[in-house]
Amino acid sequence: MATGAETTQAMTIEEIEPFEAAEEINGGDVVLIDTREPHEYREARLEGGKLVPPGLLADEIESAAPDKSARVVLYCRSGNRSAVAAAQMQGLGYENVASMAGGILLWQEQGLPVVSESGMTAEQRERYSRHTLLPEVGVDGQVKLLNAKVLLLGAGGLGAPTALYLAAAGVGTIGLVDDDVVDASNLQRQVIHNTERIGMPKTTSARIFIEGLNPDVNVVEHNGRLDAGNILDVIRDYDIIVDGADNFPTRYLLNDASVRLRKPVVSASILGFDGQISTFAPYEGPCYRCLYPTPPPAELAPSCSANGVLGVMAGTMGTLQANEVIKLVLGAGEPLIGRLLLYEALGTRFTELKVRRDPNCPICGEDAPEIPESEMGQFPDYDLFCAGAGGDR
Amino acid sequence: MATVRIPPVLRPKTGGQPQVEAAGGNVGEVLRALTAEFPETGAQLFGEDGELNRYVNVYLNDEDVRVLGGLETAVSEGDTVVILPAMAGG
Predict the structure, then answer these.
(1) ipTM
(2) CB contact (8 A) between residue B90 and residue A156
(3) How far apart are CA B49 and CA B75, in angstroms?
(4) CB neighbourhood size of A86 (10 A)
């Protein structure tokens, strides 16, 4: 496509600066045409502009600008498309057409006002501009993130980096479940906390960091443990759950509850130099029980406090969890549904394994019992189920 | 020969090796070759009934052998058998 300059040389068209356009528009008697695409128009536009996308110019310009002798000012994003459109209009007999040089980008740079349909404030448009520039996100996607409610089980190793990046992304509501307080040994990997906040409840410490990073985020602290008695009430209000728990009974309980309420769970785990991550979408893909029907005995699944974990492992797997959440919210890309991603840090190697729905799964299989409403809150004793496995940090 | 990937929790029982070559025509034979060379791995992999313990996942390349033919799943030259226990750390 010819640049604005090339088109201008080929056929003389009038180009005006944004401030000149502003004066003319304020003076009245100008037909202002926005020659961009609908999603750009929705994000931000000049007030009074009529949208005529380039592909539809020939068909629609005469109803947008019926008087061919009237003054028409065209603008687009950077001045190229509007120059081409101006030339096209002259070819159609329009006598008094000008293109605004530099487009809406230059207009905004010069401090001139725009209106927005997105509901985002000017500060938000600025803050999330690196997101909204991406076609897979755009304004619509950013608004989805701002409206999303995500619950993080654990504000520790995995929860910390996940919370940081979800907050940065503008996830509007982040719930944090943790009954622990910050201690020095956490700071090797739980980067949302800091030395000054040792002794503080982790949910509060995380909230302080998040509020400083992004005031758009509403942090809900669930300072306590999840158990059979409270889990449904806690998870009910959220769209997506992130499993950063440190023990098997909680993971199995979460699976049971999330399948009952049909909440997707982004689940990761770390130990030493190894990490695993998958996304469980109830009835669409496998659940945690399809993957791990029974937990291992303690000697096969030591805790991080017993075995150790490379601090940055938490960051790698936690940010992968945030990535999954964002894809689910946006409905973009391919989440790790039915896929188990293994990461090994010493070799920096990723391996992907397939996970299938288990037709005999007692939670989500074909013959799994239907839970009547009256028994929704009743769960098996997972401590017993996992007897001896995991349980300490 | 197939390559058996040993998870970190089992490596103390394979002399620290992260992978071991083992011969066998199916997954069961490959794992038996592994436990023959490293007897201490046997208790973690197999129950008293000779079946794979349910808490250990075994993959042939990228597919859980439970979805394939279990221990009878045929193994070809150059295949990878992955032993994968669950981890809870977070």
Answers:
(1) 0.95
(2) yes
(3) 22
(4) 27
